[in-house]
Amino acid sequence: MAGRVDLHLHTTASDGKYRPAEVVRRAAGLGLSVIAIADHDSVDGIAPALAAAKSFPGLTVIPCLEVSTDVPRGEVHILGYFIDYTSAELNAALAHFRDSREGRAKGMIDKLSGMGINIEWRRVKEIAGEGSVGRPHIAQAMLEKGYITSFKEAFDKYIAREGPAYVEREKMMPAEAVKLRIGSAFPLEPELTMPIKGRDMVAGLPRTVEVSSEEIREALAEPVRLIAEKICSVLEETPPELSSDIIERGIVLTGGGALLRGLDELLSKVTQIPVRVADNALHCVAVGTGRALEHLDEIEQSGAVTRM
């Protein structure tokens, strides 16, 4: 007899009610045979869920992720199954989106304050716990202070998409989500695939196609080639004294583009120079600039820069 499954479960790693281990325990208690931990923009619930599942041999946990993306007339939530939840590139990108969630939540709190609804950011963070801050946590804080009588009222009156306190959050286009899931600049072993559901533009009917990392790599080939060519061009014009330093220390990739799988391997092969992705690639330039400004006088005294 086929088992019962639930392939879309959230935990406290995002906006779910229960911790990962509790979700696993409840799923096993309900007789489910397969579940997927699919938190919003977070993979933090997967490892503890897999660990908890070891106590329930009849239950299989699939590592999954739900990513919100923009389309012209709304948004599409893309689910990725059997993901590599340990990927440094994936986790760096998700950290960036979780940070944007906090900015969005603070913006909603500011709007609510302007309407005479005063809730504290500290309390919203406490409610969210270890998970990403979301609208349900804001609603809970409003409920605790008596501004509303139900979660539904919070959304209907204030924080739904058309509500007066609603703030858009940073999202990606569906193509970006696919690139994040299976994109690469260098051959993978094994290559990855991903089912894509949408509407056939010719027949006008719903359709599912399977896209491979090889196809995505082919689509990205031209911009990746231009990046490699520009780096080689800059290296050719670099003074010898700096070239020796680059050869010794290597090239450090920063920014969102650095998170493309295999880009460091490709550039290292092309330039014959060690290439690595910076820790916290999305934020390190801003952090470094802030630190430089904090110590600008010392840097100027060293002769490394001159104030214009």
H/I helix tally: 12
Fraction of residues in helix: 40-55%
The CATH superfamily of the largest domain appears as Metal-dependent hydrolases
How many domains? The number is: 2
Return the structural class.
alpha/beta
Global shape: globular
- CATH level-1 class of the largest domain: Alpha Beta
**Mean pLDDT across residues:** 87
Biggest sheet, strands in spatial order? 1-2-3-4
Largest sheet: 4 strands, mixed
H and E order: EHEHEEHHHHHEEHHEHEHH
Kindly identify the CATH topology of the largest domain.
TIM Barrel
Strand content: 15-25%
CATH architecture of the largest domain: Alpha-Beta Barrel
Number of strands: 8
The stretches of 5 or more residues where confidence is low (pLDDT under 50) are none
Gyration radius over CA:
23 Å
Q: What's the N-to-C terminus distance? A: 76 Å
Name its key features.
single chain; 308 residues; alpha/beta; TIM Barrel; Nucleotidyltransferase, domain 5; 4-stranded mixed β-sheet; two-stranded antiparallel sheet; globular
Q: How would you portray this structure in words?
A:
There is one protein chain. This protein is an alpha/beta fold and 308 residues long. It folds into two domains: 4-159, Metal-dependent hydrolases (TIM Barrel); 183-277, 2-Layer Sandwich (Nucleotidyltransferase, domain 5). It contains twelve helices and eight strands. The chain has helices at residues 20-29, 46-53, 88-114, 121-128, 135-144, 151-159, 174-182, 213-237, 240-249, 263-271, 284-294, 296-302, and strands at residues 4-9, 32-37, 60-71, 74-81, 193-199, 206-212, 251-253, 275-277. The strands form three sheets. A four-stranded mixed beta sheet has the order 1-2-3-4. A two-stranded antiparallel ribbon has the order 5-6. Strand 5 and strand 6 form a beta hairpin. The longest helix is centred in the N-terminal third of the chain and has 27 residues, at 88-114. It is globular. It starts with a strand and ends in a 6-residue tail after the last helix. The model has no long low-confidence stretch (mean pLDDT 87).
